[in-house]
Amino acid sequence: MVLNKNIKIIINYLLGPIVFVLLLLAIYKQLLQKANWHESLQQIKNAISGPQQWKIWLVFLLMIANWGIEAKKWQLSIAPVQHITWWRAFKATLTGSTMASFTPNRMGEYLGRMLYIEEGKRIQSISLTILCSFSQIMVTMITGCAGIIYLLWDLHHNTMVHVEMIHLWLSVLLIIVLIILLLLSIFYFHLSWLVKLMKRFRVPEKYLVYVKILEDIHTNILLRILFLSFLRYCVFILQYYFMFSVFAVPLTFLQTFGSISVVFLVLAIVPTFTFLTELGLRWEASIQLVELFSTNTVGIFAGSFGIWLINLVVPALAGSLLILGIKLFKNK
User: Contact 323/72 with Cβ under 8 angstroms?
Assistant: First the structure.
């Protein structure tokens, strides 16, 4: 137990920051290699206070829509266990985003949402909350495959030196993700199989209670959850499209979709140790893929950072105030 605790400490407090620093150094090196990085930096300064700053406020509004859709999706997911209002679900998602900031792969998000579930129902709601996240991963994989196909098509018209290596990397990734997606799709629409499998292997009843609720989830509900996940995904793409436009990264909507959908795919399948590690990975993946369409590395860097700040940091700060409110209420 002591060994396991030490490993967790190393991962959370040493390995995560080390990976982030290494990614930051790699990005810094890429920025310095750009001859016009000073001009790009000046463009960013002008954009923040220029006539296109309305797009930044629009991205803020889309952030609210993003978490609002997620709240509706979670409200729908846990309905078999507990009926809650959309506003309560919205507060739960913000609280979950705060807890996720301090845990590997955002696992603390589930714990944060459980604070809004009645005692005695929290165990069953865990599997439904995971189902909610599972649907988003499936949408990320589906759109990620579409993005890879678009990038592979575009690479035929690209004269960059390292294009062959990118083509190979994307082709391998596409095959792997398609296989995983096929298996996940079968599992998603046949959740009762998991329960039957656990019963066949005589899993104790105290563990079965976590997943038994999945047997009663109707296909229509699963499709609605998937649709909301896709709607939320569209909001993500729009945010990047507007943010890149602000920072002088002239991508079409299709180019934004093709590159960012693969970035999301990478973020979904590559483990991140801390909040900062996810930021570093987001920067690195965005620069590598968006540079296929634009050489404004500084603009790509700024746009990705802006999205991270608005979509994750701001909601996490709001969620921290909600957690404080929960603690004060309990103390009373």
Answer: no
pLDDT (tens digit per residue) in 162-210: 667 777 888 888 999 999 999 888 888 887 777 777 777 777 766 676 7
- Are the CB atoms for 26 and 284 separated by under 8 Å? yes
User: Containing domain of residue 124, as a range?
Assistant: 2-331
Integer Cα distance of 76 and 2 in angstroms: 40
Overall domain count for the chain: 1
Distance CA 32, CA 37 (A): 7
Model confidence at 238, in pLDDT bands (50, 70, 90)? very high
Q: What 8-state DSSP symbol labels residue 117?
A: S
Residue with tokens 């991140």: 272
Backbone angles phi, psi at 120, to 5 degrees: 100, -15
**Residue 222 token pair:** 């699963």
Question: Which residues of 130-264 form beta strands (DSSP E)?
Answer: none
